[in-house]
């Protein structure tokens, strides 16, 4: 199974040790982490890197490192994951992304996410792919809508890994079904 994807402008690929500095910048940036409980600590960044590097190596997918093809610059990650928390929609295949602010507003998240959806449906045979975010995260919800995902108030949930009472605990769930053959 392929361990990378390409779009017109982007390469979604296996993690390399040279990506660690970009991943650190990404996971400690206040704007990027606005809708997460806290910026990641060094050990969490390394664990993320190792977990997704291993997932891609073993399964052929995970959250891929994303680089621009025109300059080779690391801009973040986009990919597929299997969340492991207790919620009404788990087990599932999740699509997610996180890009550096300089890469925002250029359609990179949408472009990469569409490639990941196609991979999930065509190569993995998924019937459905979900995405979720804090209810207050309108930017990520806009990407979900641009890639054709749908939401329902009945699917909204309280994220079990976010503290009770935290403004980020209420989450929305978006779904996309595999295209009919």
UniProtKB/TrEMBL annotation:
It comes from the Bacteria. Gene3D superfamilies: 3.40.630.30. It comes from Permianibacter aggregans. Pfam families: Acetyltransf_3. The keyword Transferase applies. This is RimJ/RimL family protein N-acetyltransferase. GO terms for molecular function: acyltransferase activity, transferring groups other than amino-acyl groups. Residues 10-179 form the N-acetyltransferase domain.
